[in-house]
Here is the input.
Amino acid sequence: MSISFRDRVAIVTGAGGGLGRAYALELARRGAKVVVNDLGGSRDGTGHSDAAASVVEEIKVAGGEAIADGSSVTDLAQVEAMVARAKQAWGSVHILINNAGILRDKSFAKMTMDDFKAVVDVHLIGSANATHAVWEMMREQAYGRILMTASSTGLYGNFGQANYGAAKLGLAGFARTLALEGARYNVRVNTIAPTAATRMTEDIFPPELLARFQPEAVAPAALFLVSEDAPTNVILGAGAGVVQAAYVTLTRGAALREPTPEAVAAQYAEITDRTGETVPQSGAEQAMTILQRLQGQ
Ligand code: NAI
Here is the structure.
């Protein structure tokens, strides 16, 4: 079964380089018309360049269709104007890949709140801005595929990335509720946690692994998650051609013998026992499991 994006319009944020560029090129190669968004800043989010224009050029040389957009995802008015341009040029937007990002790594002890807010602003608020700008259109046309970009840092933590981790797990949480709200409108929302050698990770990748961890090796998972037959509400990890699924699981837990912290301590082994753990598909489902536990099931 081949996956085509013919007649689909896609916006990829932060697509002037790294992973976003790889997604944009592959979407275009498979027939999508692509808005290549990128502010063209440096890794910490400062400055500007015409990174988006050069990716558009690459797509056009390969015979595809694309337009460049230099908006910052942090600016709702600019993002709305970008969506309006796409609609004017091609009639609609079917796919949004929220990929733009910056880093301000420091241990939390040394991190300023400006560093914290700047990172949350680009990743989390930026993704919410772009999603908000397409959401109504996708609901009305009963078709939408949205991908959030989380990270192993969001899912599992990494030293020196408290700001980034907060934003990234925020994105996974954002996707969860959108997947529920979008379901009856055929708007599917997923999350990817990529691992790739890009300028973002250039100082941590051993040189011998660079060739394997190319951004192009993440693109298959990202494209699957925005395809016609994409699932919804899933988190995939992807790097070097390996694709994994990440879950937020819930143990069966324990009904406390008495309502005290001492009882939590005494029953801690039972509370954390992973035998029979589940993966609730909504917050309401967790509440149901509590009721079931009280009924001794
Ligand atoms: P990158 O630095 O090459 O790409 C990020 C792009 O976003 C840049 O081109 C940058 O100019 C653009 N950007 C930054 N702020 C923007 C703004 N306000 N508006 C529009 N564009 C903006 O890095 P990479 O690795 O390709 O990152 C892509 C995404 O993948 C990011 O969200 C990153 O956090 C995430 N990620 C990457 C991992 C990796 O191993 N490379 C690991 C986990 C997550």
User: Anything to note?
Assistant: Residues 13-14, 16-20, 37-41, 43, 45, 51, 72-74, 99-102, 122, 126, 149, 151, 194-196, 198-201 surround NAI (CB under 6 Å). The first helix runs from residue 18 to 29. The mean pLDDT is 96. Residues 249-297 form a domain with the Helix Hairpins fold (CATH 1.10.287).
